[in-house]
Write a structure and sequence with these properties.
Layout lengths: L1 E5 L2 H17 L4 E4 L6 H8 L2 H4 L4 E4 L1 E3 L9 H8 L10 E3 L8 H14 L7 E4 L24 E6 L4 E6 L1 H6 L2 E6 L5 H8 L5 H6 L4 E7 L7
Parallel strand pairs: 1-10, 2-3, 2-6, 3-5, 6-9, 9-10
Antiparallel strand pairs: 4-8, 7-8
Helix pairs in contact: 1-2, 2-4
Amino acid sequence: MNLRVFDDLAALHAAAARTIVQRAQAGARTFALSGGSTPKPLYALLGKSEELRALPIIWVVVDERYVPIDHPESNAGMIQKTLFAGGMAPAHRFLRFHTEVNDPAATARAFENDWGQLGITTLDLVLLGIGDDGHTASLFPGTPVLQVEDRIASEVFVQRLNMWRVTITKPVIRAAKTRMVLAAGASKRPILEQVRAGADYPIAQATREAGETWWFVDRAAAPEG
């Protein structure tokens, strides 16, 4: 586990922003972004980067709750309000899940079509979170989407949440050139310790032996030892 531990969230976000800007300056062009509260300040930082605004970048939403984009729980909506708070740069593109279709399966297929039209082959960097249950993206324990190996995106019904979601798939995350996992808070420490010990949670399936993966964590979340 390539672990980077930071004293607080501000330091974590600053380091993650520097890494993303450096990768973009080195030629990376496709960045996939997860939702949740932890990365919001990071996206605000990236939105203020003149270096990024000058580069042709495709921003990809990792997964989405099946809600309208103006819903408070929409990942794409959150990204628009932070990363694009000052407007999207002319050279940037934004690939999101169009939940307004009101059909999760059709939304996943449309996402795959848009992916192809944008000429994406693999992601340069995918930013991930980790849930207390070991999920990442919308790859939840026990859901059939974990067995999907021949799709870029898929719909999935998460029984315990009683909610449809749409997500990029495990093989797409594993094929990315770099994975960056953000984790903060004491509640994440037990799951990180289990993953480091070899537990087969979805986050482990999506990152283990999949090439370059970095774990950016604050001190409260850092595994002991």
